[in-house]
Amino acid sequence: MKRTTLMAITAAVMILVIAVILLYIHNSAGRSTITPMERIASLDPTCTQLLFSLGLGHDVVEMDTYSAQLLAYFNESPKTNVTILSSIWPFPSLESIVNASPSIICYDYGWYGPQLSKISGYNWTIIVINGTSDTNMSQIENDVRSAGLKLGITGAASAVINSMNSVLSSISSVTQGSERPTVIYLDGVNPIYSASYNTFIGNEIKLANGIDVVNTTNPWPQLSPSQFLLYNADYIIASDFMGNCSATLQAILSLPGINTVNAVKENHIYIIGNLGQSLIEEPGPLSVYGVKLIAYILHASSFNASPPHCINATWIMNNIRPELGSG
Q: Each residue of 203-220: pLDDT tens digit?
């Protein structure tokens, strides 16, 4: 009788151990739910991209206004009890962060720089990413990998990285061997600001099988009109820096001598709206879709695409089809 009881207890313990192991394996491939649900404060859009891609969206209790706007494009509404930071420059309100009672904070060093001491000394786990300072996809992957390791969800991090590489491979398989057009990316014309080849945007243009012609060491040089004309880019891609596509286009076409530029002669000027700017200008898991957007502009015929000169969110969602994990 005692032996039977002992065997039953042993079997029950073994079943429990196996269940715990299986639960651990399951969560290693995704998010960790062995511990109670975390409360995460995302301090900028790059962090928000990362957290939602990792499947942690439901744990986010604080984010900035721009993050909420980005999520709206993906039909992802912040939870009703999420605190929205109205300002994140030069630093979010510490009182607001404390009141949100986070257990984890995502800190973008590329955006905030050496201000980490402002949130040190609290009982928070702090995930530090290079974020905004990333200049290539490998660095974004390192952000994803380090965050996954810190949070104990390395399987989810690997899945995000594999998904990113899959999108990039699908782009290169189409553009490989095609002629590489020259590109200039504008973020203003009074004065003229452009992204140089050694910026993250320059790397995206390269991955889209284009050439960023602004070959300065300064990441965002201010160009004179004569310098701009000398680059003579085949394509002009611009953020909607006037807040209205028609006004932005008109501002570009008002530059002295603009009619001599190849991009104007070939009708290759494209204005990118808010969603497109997030994909292209904010280094994160969604950046592979920024590459795809640029590739659709530069190699439209190869993708059987017809991008409009004013590229809005609707066109992007229907044609580029970016995906963001919701958690």
A: 999 999 999 999 999 999
